Protein: Cytoplasmic phosphatidylinositol transfer protein 1
Organism: Odontophorus gujanensis
Amino acid sequence: MLVKEYRICMPLTTEEYRVGQLYTISKHSHQESEKGEGVEVVRNEPHEDPVHGPGQFTEKRVHLSSKLPSWARAVTPRIFYITEKAWNYYPYTITGDSRPLSPQCSFLPKFSIYIETKYEDNCGDSENIFHSNKILGDHEVSFLDIAFDEIPERYYRSLEDPRFFSSAKTGRGPLREGWRQHTKPIMCSYKLVTVKFEVWGLQTRVEQFVHKVIRDILLIGHRQAFTWVDEWCGMTMEEVRQYERETQEATNEIIGLVAPTISVSEVGHPTATHSAPASAPSTPLSDEAPDFLAPPKARPRKKSAPETLTLPALRERASAE
């Protein structure tokens, strides 16, 4: 088990980020989706927690077959996805599952990711925000800088570089060296990430690889949330939820999956006895042994989606303004 805490600051308030996060996730998922790949939204519905109150439950299938490294593709079936379940009680969210009775996959029998997130209006200086005395073992704390930390070259977009971006609506940016110490407003996303892969000979390699992927995703997603601020700034929660629904429908249509040959067992909602309900990246299950194939042949990728995704409902609202 490898536990790390990530702290990512943004030149936003937590209330602003609540809208920006929903917009960014929806738009990014749409841009990254292609035929048979990307993020498919299975469920997105309100959920009530006895401790945290009203929130939103989402279940997504993240299709990964062609995005895995060669050494991982060699031990996974041709049709491969993980199920991501999340409970959002903003400013507190949970993604993942640590329950021992969760569905297990025959080729990844002991793999789990658990992410606990808290958002605060500060520069990341809150100590022991996750009450580390309840965490088994020590964990590393990493500050991620959306402006100056490196991201994989294939994900770099000059228009999404906070060092050069300036918001026309808010006047924020570009971000300079040391921006966290003098920028107002500022908020921080605290994420405690636990990755567990209990397979002898592969544990360290897989757990480190997953943390590297999560780090890159966090940096890219938060860079986009800030540099897309002029697109979502001013939207109400009702408007961003409508955008989310319409974009999810468009994304699912792009993925256009044929009925998968590998099914996923259902996992129930967290029970009322859980103050922090767990969720479960699970992997597809099958009654028969998976059909292991060689890495898929390379295929041409779709061209990138436009920088701004305008859906009919938003287009009409923009015209009215």
